[in-house]
């Protein structure tokens, strides 16, 4: 099983990131214990953590294979198009 998931702001429910994984629990832990690398997602998570918050994880779709998950059309959220993690 593969999961297309979103990370959302816990205060507003606004989606900030979409990815694909076969283990949502493990992937969430990786996201919130990131190294100090740069990038929008990590900066956003760092700001949440500074406020004693973590993103919420939402499962958007569940599919049988990674190929199927990767073939899903891009999602448009606000002004950003997300293809694949």
Number of DSSP-assigned strands: 5
User: What is the radius of gyration?
Assistant: 13 Å
**Could you give the order of strands across the largest sheet?**
2-1-3
Q: What would the principal axes of the Cα set say about the shape?
A: elongated
The helical percent reads 25-40%
Could you tell me how far the N terminus lies from the C terminus, measured between alpha carbons in angstroms? 16 Å
Q: List the secondary-structure elements in sequence, H or E.
A: EEHHEHEE
Mean of all residue-level pLDDT scores: 83
How many discrete structural domains?
Answer: 1
Class computed from helices, strands and strand pairing: alpha+beta
Report the portion of residues in β strands: 25-35%
Count of separate DSSP helical elements? 3
Unreliable runs: none
Largest sheet: 3 strands, antiparallel
What does this structure look like?
It is a single chain. The chain is α+β, with helices and mostly antiparallel strands and 85 residues long. It has one domain. It has helices spanning 24-32, 40-50, 66-71; strands spanning 2-8, 15-21, 56-63, 75-77, 80-82. The protein has a 3-stranded antiparallel beta sheet with strand order 2-1-3. Strands 4-5 form a two-stranded antiparallel ribbon. It starts with a strand and ends with a strand. 16% of the residues are buried.
Which features characterize this protein?
85 residues, alpha+beta, single chain, 3 helices
